[in-house]
Each structure stands twice: as structure tokens, then as C-alpha cells.
Amino acid sequence: MESQNLLLQFSLLLLFFSGFHGSLCTQDSDILDSYILSKSNYDASPNISPSIAPEAMLPLQAPSPLMPFTHTGVPKLSGHCAFNFSAADSILRTTATDCWSSLAPYFANVVCCPQFDASLVVLVGQASSQSQSLALNVTHATHCLSDVEQILESQGASEKLLEICSVDPSNLMESSCPVMDVNEIETSLNTSSLVAACENIDPTIECCNQVCQNAISAAAEVLAFRHKNVTTSSDAPVLSEKSTLISDCKSIVLRWLSSKFDPSSANRIIRVLSSCDINKSCPLVFPDIKSISRECGEITSNQTSCCNTMNSYLSRLQQQSFVTNLQALNCATFLGKKLQEANITSNIFDLCHVNLKDFSLQVDEKESGCLLPSLPTDLTYDQTSGIGFICDLNDNVAAPWSLAYSGAASTCNNTAVLPELPKATSSQLSKGAYIKDTVYALLFASSMVIQMLI
Questions:
Q1: Is the dihedral of CA 121, 126, 129, 131 positive or negative?
Q2: Which pLDDT does position 384 carry in this prediction?
């Protein structure tokens, strides 16, 4: 089993890194065919209902590139969870696709986990119409999370989803927020104003005007201090408690808000809010920069040696995950700052032609990095094309060598001097890559190796 799992991961990496023969065109999407199987756990099609799952069949020859393996098991539900899974069927299928098997770690921070988190918020919020509570007890939370996990896995999601997204039953349970009863919330808040602030949320401007975010924060503060005697103070523990209270109450407000919309609309609102958060930072882990400092520390350093070291360093970052265009800007700025603090005075980003897309996972040797849109995005599944996603291979925006960039707030300041930013919707308009005819030989080779392992 371990050798098979290693093969699955290796096959996935081959798909990403071994040179797709992709051709640029004006398509809406970047289609990545993923044909991965294992002996004991077949990845499932998100469009096949568990109730009509076909029996597992082990192929004896290479699969057709146009027909990915489709198998799903029947989820083993506890029978002790009151979630309305039928009403949330659409968003659960979206979650399963966004967190598809071995792809999940590479889309974790920007696609998979935001969608998974949103689906849990929606499920708890929708269930509150019957329970009148916006939090579950430990027993109920354990059963419900297990059921959600079973359903998602049966539809193709990663078996390690909880680990990847750092989710456990406490994500569904009571928190430090003192108000979790629906009736008390509705008597404490101006609920009509809260709904109005978020129902028509605009994903292109919410991160700047923060209409919905401000309304949620204000509501959270009201709930946080309804029964708690926490006062403003310079004392750190009190400030910490206040911050935790407000954060926990924001989660409660989001659950309540999700109960006032249909599941898809609620999911959309939460995903827009999450996109504002994830685009404020860089999700990458940066290794030590000593090697770059050594090779690039002097203006008279050997340019070839410096750039080779820089490229080697970037290749380590590129093995981590896909990032959005704004995340890439944050990552480039962060690395530039680290290098300058290490007394590297020359602009080695310019010297070595470092672009923003060099900070994202690589999908093509020639086109290199693939930047996801800063707007909320999902993976898609098509029975003929497989798994697909939107990304931009054309925005060759130079990585900034500056300490001036201050995060997402700067992108809302029209007077700020910034490098030309990839437009949030550029890849959705015309700049995508349609990757096809990619891995027929790899598919054949991997399927043959898998048969030998069986």
C-alpha cells in the first residue's frame, strides 16, 4: 500500500513537472487530466451519486485519456448527525472536487481548505433552523464531521483532508463566544442590516470596501460582550481574550448568516470573505537564504552563479502549492525584504528575471508558473476532460524588489506605486492554457507499474 501511495504521488508530480505539451489559447480554463488509481482506494468521480456507485473494476490496460477512472464507495454514515446533506449536495460535490485526492495539498490554501471550511459553516448554519443552536456538542460534532468526511471521500476527496486543512470536531463545536442560541442572536443584532450588507457581496470590491466584513465584525463585537466582562486594557492577556472572543463570535455570526440563504448563496458569501483573507499573506514556507546571500551578496558576484542559486531556491518554493496572483506578490515582496535585510544590495529579481509566477507550482517547463485568480475559484470535473482549473500563464509580471508594498491594503490604494498587477479576472477573460494530449505515455507506464505492484 505504501509503495502504491508513493507511485500515486510520483505520478502526480510527473503530471505537473515533467513538461506538459500545452498550447496557449483563448479558453476559459486550464484543463489538467488526472488519471490516478490505487488498488485499494479508487478516486471517485464527483458527479456520481454514492447511491448508484458502480462496482470497482481494475483496468488491465492503459485508460483512455478522455475517460478518467470513476468509482465511488457508499459512505458509511453514523446516523447520529442532523445535517441536511441533501440540501447541501451541490456544495459538497464542489468541495470533493476542490479537494480531489492527491491534488488537495497543492490547492490547499487557496481552493480546497477555503471551500471545505465554507461547507462546514453552511452545514452548521443550515442545521440551526431545527436545533436553534449554532454550535454542536462534542458527540454530535464528532459524528457529523465523520459523516462529512465519509461523503467527501466517497466523491473523490483526499483521505487526508482533515489533516491537510487542520480540521477536527472543535471546528463545529462551541467556542468562547457567549451567544450561540439563534433566538438570542436575533434579539441582540440588527439582523436585517447584517443580511443586507452581505447578500449582494461583490467579490471584486469587498476586500477593499469591506461592507460585509465590517458588518460581521460589528455583530461579533456585540455578541462577544453580551455576557462577558472583558474591558479594553493594555494588559496583554485581556487583549488576547478580547481578540479570541471576537474571532469566535465572527464564526458564530457566519454560521447564522449562512442559515439565512440557500446553501449555494451562503457558500459564495463565505468564499468571497475567505479570499480577502488568503490574499493578504503568503502561504509559502521559505527555506534559509544563506546560499543566496553567499552567491549574490556582492554587486560584483558572478551573475551566472547567483542566478543559478536563485533559481534553485525558487524551485524549492515551487514544490509547495499553487498561489494566487496577489499571494505571489506578497511572497515576492517578503523574499525581497529578507534578501535586502541580508545585505544583498543589487536587485537580483531583475538580474535573474524573476517573475511573480515563479513563486507558484509549475505546470509547464516553458510557460513555468501558473497563477490562480485572486477571486474565489474552484476546480472543475468533466467526464471527458477530467479535472480542470483556471490559471494564468501569460502574466509575466516582474517580482518587485521593494520594501514599500504593504499587503492587500496597497492594492486598494489607487495612488500607490506598484508593479503592474495581474488582473483578478484576467485568466477568466482570455488568458488561460488548455493543456491537452499531455501524458498518454505516462498514463500507460504508470498503469503498467501499478499492475506489477498488485
A1: negative
A2: 81
Q: What is the pLDDT of residue 234?
A: 52
Cβ contacts of residue 391 below 8 Å, gap of 6+? Answer: 30, 322, 363, 370, 371, 372, 373, 427, 432, 433
Distance between CA atoms of residues 176 and 253, nearest Å? 13
DSSP string, 296-360: HSSTTS-HHHHHHHHHHHHHHHTTT--EEHHHHHHHHHHHHHHHHHTT--S-HHHHTT-BGGGGS
- Which pLDDT score is estimated for 31? 31
Nearby residues of 199 by Cβ (< 8 Å), 6 or more positions away: 261, 265, 269
Q: How long a stretch of residues is the chain?
A: 454
Q: What's residue 48's pLDDT? A: 33
Q: What phi and psi, each to the nearest 5 degrees, are found at residue 2?
A: -65, -40
N-term to C-term CA, the chain: 9
In degrees to the nearest 10, what's the CA dihedral of 391, 393, 398, 401?
40
Tell me which residues of the chain have a pLDDT lower than 70.
1-72, 227-241, 299-301, 364-367, 394-395, 403-411, 413-454
- Kind and range of the H or E element at 432? strand 432-434
Residue 369 cell numbers, joined: 508558473
- The confidence score (pLDDT) of residue 370 equals 87
